[in-house]
Specification:
This protein has one domain. The protein has about 80 residues and is of the alpha/beta class. The protein has helices at about 35-45, 55-65, and strands spanning about 1-10, 15-25, 25-35, 75, 80. The longest helix is centred in the C-terminal third of the chain and has 10 residues, at about 55-65.
Amino acid sequence: MTYLYTISYDEKKDDFYGIVDCQTEGGYFSLFTIDDTKEMIELIKTNVMKHIDDIEGLRTFLIAQEFLNEEDTIKLFPKTMF
């Protein structure tokens, strides 16, 4: 299955949000969220991700956490910056 990783960042407020989701025949499915800047910083500090759009690091993490299967992919949706 192919998932989209969508990120939104407001530089003025230093507010980050990321979501991994997909559209299925049954509707919209949200797999994983990064709810704020603090959570993203923690993912980077712990080397889960190298930067906010590191989809390979995120994919490896989600496979290890059993959110994704090995054959699943993640594509980066264009960034939304404020």
